[in-house]
Specification:
By secondary structure, the chain is α+β, with helices and mostly antiparallel strands. It has 14 helices and twelve strands. The longest helix is centred in the last third of the chain and has 44 residues, at 265-308.
């Protein structure tokens, strides 16, 4: 039997039985659309997160008291650790021979005010004078901190773009006095716009010199040490140097674990991938159930079709059609039916992914391999679940078929 003829017969059946076809394919359409949407969103998130995390720089790492927390028990245990101090920062800066830049940041939440404009829940960052060098912050205009700002506890600040938009109403903020907490600061620079990261706004911040931060907000907040190694090739050696310096300063005994954590962009990305892989498995599992249900429906409808077309099968066999011709006819119908549902599901999934990318904070990236995978999965479902009806049709006796009413 010609393959094209079988495909044309399948499309004729789809055209004649539109409602039945729609009900038959709904499971496959939902399953494939879910796969395409989930894959596109997760892939888009992976690309976005990778870009944001890697903006730390490949030769940069962070030393933190708590590190990357993955459980409540881990959090409670690490809260018992001693806090890092500016003296620790100075020691790393003095003794780490493979460290190009060593800075520190700490933060709290507070309110800012300019004239009658008031903004709450702003991230207030205390930073060393090399804040721009060891972070992904760039200065859009104005200047960054200098060493004298920290030494003299100067009341100067940098502003994130959202703070500028919300409290200055188009007015040039440079050299204006803005109230941060209970203290007035002179604005010296404006940071670049970075957007959001994992649904967290990255433009809603005020940065002040870290010594000024201690004077205004106290020194009880957690401190992070930001380190840039001389090069990527000596990153691990630089981490080892910092580890030895801090263990010695903090009195960690030989057999005790570190009382601090060191992590890089790669560490954060690995943790993120661990979490998203679980979500991936769950969502793909749900989509697979839809595909299996859709396949079972295709099989049942094809069995009904075999019964309805028993006389047609008898006539074809009487005119010389072989069993394998009948087998291929119904198998091609099932595959074409499922492939058609897969194409509809791919179109729907791409549309949903596009809408998610446009109207939500979640990025989406539609990949060619995902589209091809969706079509392949749908076709495979039709092939697998179409075998039983096709074999039943092929085994029918032509005499009995011609007698069928």
């Amino acid at each position: 039997m010609r393959y094209l003829e079988g495909i044309l017969i399948a499309f004729q059946a789809i055209r004649v039985n539109k409602l039945r076809t729609a009900l038959t394919l709904i499971g496959i359409v939902i399953g494939v659309a879910t796969v395409i949407t989930v894959v596109s969103v997760i892939n888009g998130m992976n690309n976005y997160v990778s870009e944001k995390i890697n903006s730390m720089g490949p030769a940069t790492f962070v030393v933190d008291r708590l590190g990357l927390i993955t459980s409540r028990e881990q959090f409670l245990e690490r809260m018992k650790r001693k806090e890092l101090t500016l003296e620790d920062v100075d020691a790393v800066k003095r003794y780490c021979m493979l460290c190009k830049e060593v800075g520190a940041t700490t933060f709290t939440m507070g309110a800012v005010k300019y004239k009658a404009k008031y903004m709450e829940d702003v991230t207030i960052v205390g930073a060393t004078d090399n804040y721009v060098d060891v972070s992904d912050i760039d200065i859009a205009y104005g200047r960054s901190f200098v060493e004298d700002d920290n030494q003299h506890r100067a009341a100067v600040c940098l502003l994130g773009p959202d703070v500028v938009d919300n409290v200055f109403n188009g007015e040039d903020p440079i050299d204006k006095m803005i109230k941060v907490g209970k203290t007035y600061f002179r604005v010296v620079g404006i940071g670049n716009r970075r957007g959001s990261f994992l649904l967290q706004n990255q433009d809603n911040w005020v940065a002040i010199p870290i010594r000024t931060f201690e004077k205004c907000f106290g020194s009880s907040q957690d401190l992070s040490i930001d380190v840039m190694a001389n090069s990527v090739s000596v990153l691990e050696e630089a981490k080892d140097q910092v580890r030895v310096i801090l263990r010695n300063r903090r009195g960690d005994r030989y057999k005790d674990p570190d009382s601090f954590d060191i992590f890089t962009a790669e560490s954060i990305m690995q943790l993120y991938n661990n979490y998203t892989s679980t979500a991936w498995i769950v969502l793909i599992g749900v989509a697979s159930i839809s595909l299996v249900v859709g396949g079972i429906v295709v099989m049942n409808i094809m069995l009904v079709s075999v019964t309805e077309r028993t006389r047609e099968i008898g006539i074809r066999k009487a005119m010389g059609a072989r069993n394998r011709d009948i087998l291929w006819q119904f198998l091609l119908e099932a595959v074409t039916l499922a492939a058609f549902g897969g194409a509809v599901g791919v179109s729907l999934g791409c549309g949903l992914a596009w809408l998610v990318g446009i109207y939500s904070p979640l990025p989406a990236s539609i990949e060619t391999w995902a589209v091809l995978s969706g079509l392949t999965i749908a076709t495979t479902v039709g092939l697998f679940f179409g075998i039983v009806p096709a074999m039943r049709a092929a085994k029918l006796d032509p005499i009995e078929c011609l007698r069928f009413e």
